[in-house]
Amino acid sequence: MNPTIQTNDLSMRFGQTEVLHEIERAVPEGAIYALVGPNGAGKTTMIKLLMNILRPTAGGAEVLGVDTQRLAGEVFSRIGYVSENQEMPDAMTVEELMDYMRPFYPRWDRRLERELVRQFDLPMKRKLKHLSRGMRMKAAFASSLAYRPALIVLDEPFTGLDPLVRDELIESLLERAAETTIFLSSHDLAEIESFASHVGYLEEGRLLFSEEMTVLDDRFREVTITLAAPVKLPHDLPSAWLQAETVDCVVRFVHSEYRGEASEREVAAVFPGARDVACEAMPLRSIFLAIAKTGRTQNHAAQTTAGDGRPEA
Amino acid sequence: MTQILNIFRKDTRRFWPEIMLSVIVVFAFALVFPNEWRIFHDRSVQNRMSIMLAALGILMVTGWWLLIARSVHAESLVGDQQFWITRPYEWRKLLAAKVLFLAAWIGVPYLLAQLLLLAEAGFHPLAYMPGLLFNLLLVSVGFLLPMFALAAVTSNFARLTMTVLGCLILFIGYMFLVYGIPHSYTSANPYTNAVLFPLLFVGCAAAIGLQYAMRRVWVSRGLLIVVTILLAVSVAAYRMQSLVDRAYPQPSAGSTAPVSITHIPSNSRPDEARSWEGEDYIDLPVQYSGVAEGTAVFAEDFKFSITAADGSQWISPWQHTQERNLNDVHYSMLSLMIRPELYERFKRTPVTLRITLAVSRYQSDTVTKMAFPAGDVAIPGIGFCSSEYSNTLLCRAVLQGPRLTHYTVLWSHAACSDAQPSPGSTVEGDAWIEPASRTNFVLGSVWTLRSFFFRDFEGSNYAHWHVCPGSPLTLTQYHLLERTQTSMTLTNFVLPANVVPTS
Predict the structure, then answer these.
(1) Residue of chain B nearest A93, judged by CA positions
(2) Are A100 and B90 within 8 A, CB to CB?
(3) How many Å lie between the alpha carbon of B62 and the closest alpha carbon of chain A?
(4) Do residues B119 and B50 share a domain?
(5) B15 by DSSP, 3-state: which?
């Protein structure tokens, strides 16, 4: 099965600043792919590259089998794109928007349109500029879902929305998940955790990982080791152990390559006097925090080393 | 087609107030325009009408600017957050929809208004359709297309306005610069628009096409900047002296001069020199004569060379003549402009002064004799004419005006009711109408031409003379025969010793 989105060393520079660095990733058909990362990580840039709003400085990507740099016209009748920053035709009423958009899409489903309008409780006679932010987002969703797109691309769609609206939008997405691929960027880890099937983590333009949520859940564990007596953390801890710290007789870290008993044996080898080892599954938010903090610590260390003129450790 | 009409309908629905405003102004312009050829006995009313027409002309152009901006910016081509760029728009259809919008709400109303104007002026509107369409093409290339291109590379009306103002300031600065260049040429040149309009069309169309196809804003802006530079170069090149020499070649050996120039200083009209605004001027009294029967000669520009006894020489750039009409034997004054330091250098010894005129020679072809009209009368080759203030023939023509035309008429100081005017009570007066440039577009399709009949009454009170309806009127139309040069050489010419300062 061909991936719906495929990037090949996708890179983007704005002047001297590298915003995306050789992103290599495939989003399978039917996936709900959440691209997460801190502010300025390059999420919006990546989405704009995928939508041919920007052109990459190196590498490339394909969306629905089409080179993104050729993405125009008819292909967009199979793509639904909603962005928090998108300008809308504000002078139109919701009804005018739907009437205007309908002829553009051969597969526009009027029944689905009515259903979405009812579901979102959209005021048809009101101009978009007079709608609240939540309502505008709902109108954008309705006008992007009514033609049953094969791919839905959402750039920070839930930012600034109240929980009720957020739930309504997620619900509408999930109702269509069986017939489409969804690619979204978000800061809202808690929300995407509930419905994303795949997740990618972008930091400073680099995709640190990208995998299925189930694999990620299995891979990360918060490990708490209780020792008989306080010890100093060894310098040569395995690289997969993130954010290691010790308080009195307790050592904690995040295991990023957890493999059940094999990992527990590895712990026992490093801490032979351990009285208790607890390995607990982690929420997505904790996983990202651990990754983000580790990344920043490493960057800081690298910069400090470079600044000192000493070789990197 | 569905997409084109869908976008067109959307724009029309959204911008109907702007459309209404623009269409109303266009038709108001057409409504007020006929006052140009109406006869007002109160000059102040006529002046008010002229001001109103000028204001409506400005409003009309502003309305078009607004419509272009609103329609193009509705699907802005600049930025990365526009709603439409991730929708299934096809760029060709989007561009076609915008062109359709401008054609429907600028082109068609303008064309209809022009047809109404022609009908109001007494012309059969459909007979001039090709000319009207060509004029619309020139209006489109000269104004609508550049405005469209600027709208395509700006994101909103405010930025477009700033860009247009910036372009205007640059243009004014450039013209000051160009006019300040010594040896530059300012008179009409037959080559001008041959470059200007095609360059504007190709450059703007390419920038628009590129922008709609690829939305490469900086590439399109760069292209427009290059076009602007090329236009500036073409304007500068058009002013090159060599083009004048090319357009007005020297006559072949043995050919008859189209007009003779004779230097005729006298006690009452001596050679004089004066200074004005940092330049010196040598005023030479001259006489023009010898224009062959059936031809007419007009001076376009002149230049002169001064050669000293020691062989040193200075050739002036082409300069503008104050008097263009060289027909009939008459006296005139040629003012030769020269830098003061050169004047000082050459005034010490007698010099050889050679004056060369660039002239256009016309041949008469059609002569129409008729009675001076009491009311409105059709004149073949011109249009419709009537008399105004008893000393002016007021004619209206379509689009580009008539060819070079010479009118002669009899003035009278007897009462028009006299069946047999006494001998000596009538004298001949005449007027010339020169052809307008063929490549300039006009906002109003009807040209109004006022021919003030000239006659030197030698002290007699001008107000006592008038042209009576029914008196013989002769119109002679001419076509261009050639452009050439004609010269006069003065040997042992002594520049006036004193240069009189003038303010």
Answers:
(1) B14
(2) no
(3) 23
(4) yes
(5) coil
Q: Give the span between the Cα atoms of A134 and A122, in whole angstroms.
A: 10
Does the pLDDT value for residue B241 go beyond 80?
no
pLDDT of residue A306: 46
Tell me if B483 is assigned to some domain: no
**Rounded Cα–Cα distance for residues B503 and B501 (Å):** 7
pLDDT (tens digit per residue) in B146-164: 999 999 999 999 999 999 9
The helix (H) or strand (E) run that includes residue B251 is none
**Sorting pLDDT into bands at 50, 70 and 90, what band is B191?**
low
Q: Helices in A146-277 by DSSP H: which ranges? A: 163-176, 189-195, 213-219, 261-270
Cα-Cα-Cα-Cα dihedral of A111, A116, A122, A123, to 10°?
A: 0
Contact state of B83 with A54 under an 8 Å Cβ cutoff: no
CA distance B165 to chain A (A): 27
- Are B175 and B268 members of one domain? no
- Residue A298 is predicted with a pLDDT of 58
What pLDDT digit, counting tens, does each position of A6-51 carry?
Answer: 999 999 998 888 888 888 888 999 999 999 888 888 999 999 999 9
| Domain boundaries along the sequence of chain A | 5-215, 220-308
Asked whether residue B397 falls in the same domain as residue B341, the answer is no
User: Is residue B44 located within the same domain as residue B132?
Assistant: yes
Residue B486 belongs to some domain of the structure: no
Same domain, B226 and B321: no
Average pLDDT over residues A189-211: 85
DSSP 3-state of B377: strand
| Chain A positions with Cβ closer than 8 Å to B | 48, 51, 53-54, 72-77, 79, 81, 83, 85-89, 91-92, 96, 100-101, 103-105, 153
Residue B91 to residue A72, Cβ atoms within 8 A? yes
Output the pTM of the full model.
0.82
Distance from CA of B150 to the nearest CA of A (A): 21
Q: How far is B9 from chain A (nearest CA, A)?
A: 9
Model ipTM value = 0.83
Does the pLDDT value for residue A173 go beyond 80? yes
Interior angle at CA A182, CA A176 and CA A183, nearest 5: 160
- Contact residues, chain A, for B80 at CB < 8 Å: 48, 53-54
Same domain as B219, residue B327: no
* CA dist., res. B293 & res. B361, Å (int): 12
Determine whether the interchain pair A87/B83 forms a contact, defined as Cβ–Cβ distance below 8 Å.
yes
What's chain B's average pLDDT?
Answer: 85
Answer with the one of B208, B243, B278 that is the final residue of a domain. Answer: B243
Q: Which fold has domain A5-215?
A: Rossmann fold (3.40.50)
C-alpha distance from B402 to closest chain A C-alpha (Å):
50
Number of inter-chain CB pairs under 8 A, A vs B: 52
Digit-coded pLDDT (tens) for A87-132 = 999 999 999 999 999 999 999 999 999 999 999 999 999 999 999 9
Same-domain status, B409 and B265: no
Indicate the residue among B179, B209, B243 that finishes a domain. B243
Shared-domain flag, residues B162 and B30 = yes
Q: Are B388 and B464 in contact (CB under 8 A)?
A: no
**pLDDT at site A312:** 33
Closest C-alpha among B321, B364, B346 to residue B486: B321
Pick the CATH number of A220-308 from 3.40.190, 3.30.70, 3.40.50, 3.40.30: 3.30.70
| Residues on chain B touching A72 (C-beta within 8 angstroms) | 89-91
- Number of structural domains found in chain B: 3
Find the length of chain A.
313
Interchain proximity A48–B80, CB inside 8 Å: yes
Res. B433: pLDDT tops 90: no
Q: Which chain A residues touch B86 with a CB distance below 8 Å?
A: 51, 53, 76, 79, 81, 153
Looking at residue A112, its pLDDT comes to 93
Contact check, Cβ <8 Å, A53/B86: yes
Q: How far apart are CA B181 and CA B238, in angstroms?
A: 13
A75 contacts in B (CB within 8 Å)?
88
Domain-embedded: residue B367: no
Instruction: Tell me if B479 is assigned to some domain.
Output: no
Give how far Cα B73 sits from Cα of B77, B78, B95, B279, Å: 7, 9, 12, 51
B82 with A87: Cβ contact below 8 A: yes
Cβ-Cβ contacts under 8 Å, B6 against chain A: 100, 103-104
Q: For residue B80, what are the domain limits?
A: 2-243
Tell me what the mean pLDDT of segment B421-434 comes to. 71
Q: Give A238-247 pLDDT, tens digit per residue.
A: 888 988 888 8
